[in-house]
Design a protein that fits this description.
Layout (H helix, E strand, L loop, with lengths): L1 E9 L3 H8 L12 E7 L10 E8 L2 E13 L7 E8 L3 E12 L2 E12 L4 H32 L4
Length: 157
């Protein structure tokens, strides 16, 4: 299993950061080679139960990473927001968590994932885990920086 964790301070309110980082299709603008689409919303709209898919494509190679929101608590009254998703795909299993914490001068966005390749034996998983973690940390760090730059350009944040 690969454990990935990255974080970014942003000069915006926790509510504005939360709204952007949990806007699943917006992630297509910052996650390289990936398009994110909402498959369907949960019973009470966006949030708990929402299913979405990240489709990564590099030339003829592509794979889907379908996910479902299993926890949804937006930030409010000084409390952090927390969203957890479960990976449902044929290639990747595990979970991802996004947390947005209010700070004195804005907010801090934390993104962590526990990823496992579904069809690999445990020994291969132990060998591939560090490689996936290093690549994932670089990718999610880049993605969060792009998200932060977009947020900084947003008026009234």
């Amino acid at each position: 299993m690969a454990r990935i964790r990255t974080e970014l301070p942003v000069q915006a309110s926790a509510e504005a950061a939360w709204a952007l980082v949990t806007d699943w299709p917006a992630q297509s603008r910052w996650i390289p080679l990936t398009t994110v689409t909402v498959d369907h919303h949960g019973p009470s709209g966006p949030g708990l139960g929402t299913r979405f898919t990240g489709r990564t494509r590099l030339g003829p190679i592509r794979f889907d990473d379908p996910m479902e929101v299993t926890e949804w608590q937006p930030p409010g009254e000084g409390a952090p927001g927390r969203c957890q998703v479960r990976k449902l795909g044929p290639w990747l299993t595990g979970s991802a968590e996004i947390e947005v914490r209010p700070t004195a001068d804005g907010a801090r966005v934390l993104w962590s994932e526990d990823i496992r390749l579904r069809w690999t034996p445990r020994v291969a998983d132990r060998l591939l885990g560090p490689v996936i973690a290093a690549f994932g940390s670089a990718l999610f760090g880049l993605s969060l920086r792009k998200m932060g730059a977009e947020l900084a350009r947003t008026p009234g944040k």
